[in-house]
Amino acid sequence: MIMQSTNQKANHFPSIFGMFLHSCRTPQRVVNALSRMGLSVAQRTIHSAINSLSSNASLTLKKLGETRCVALAYDNFDVDLKTSVPVVEKSGGDSLKHLTSGLAFPLQHGVTKEDLCFSDYLWQKFKSNLDSGGNLTGKKTYNDLV
Predict the structure, then answer these.
(1) How many domains does the chain have?
(2) pTM of the predicted protein model
(3) What is the torsional sign of CA 76, 81, 47, 23?
(4) What's the DSSP call for residue 116?
(5) Could you identify which of 79, 103, 115, 141 might form a hypothetical disulfide with 73, taking C-beta atoms 3.0 to 4.6 angstroms apart as the criterion?
(6) Is residue 6 part of a domain?
(7) Within-domain flag for 114
(8) Residues in Cβ contact with 79 at an 8 Å cutoff, skipping those fewer than 6 apart
(9) What pLDDT, in 10s, does the model give residues 108-126?
């Protein structure tokens, strides 16, 4: 709180603290009270910042994908979302959720699109590629041994 500046255009502490409050799922009444005290930014400002950060991240990922020098990784995981107070209506509810997370990161060490041209050739020859006449049934024939 000591670090709070009086300059309304360059006051980083309330902005960061507002984002922290949002990430902790702080109730709106608490955020409004802290905003009125000058310790946080308003709820509308927090939502605007989140929308701005989300759109910037989306544009960055789109530009990264257009370079085709990106690696993608996916992970499936389960989360058990138990309620803190048991409720009679939802006592046998399904609290297990199946989620997928994705990670996109740029290829480093000077990898260029030309370095990856062989991957197009491999995809054309890949059995699961329907455009190449691939076979998705997974059945092997004598020709596959050759």
Answers:
(1) 1
(2) 0.55
(3) negative
(4) G
(5) 103
(6) no
(7) yes
(8) 96, 97, 99
(9) 888 887 777 777 777 777 7
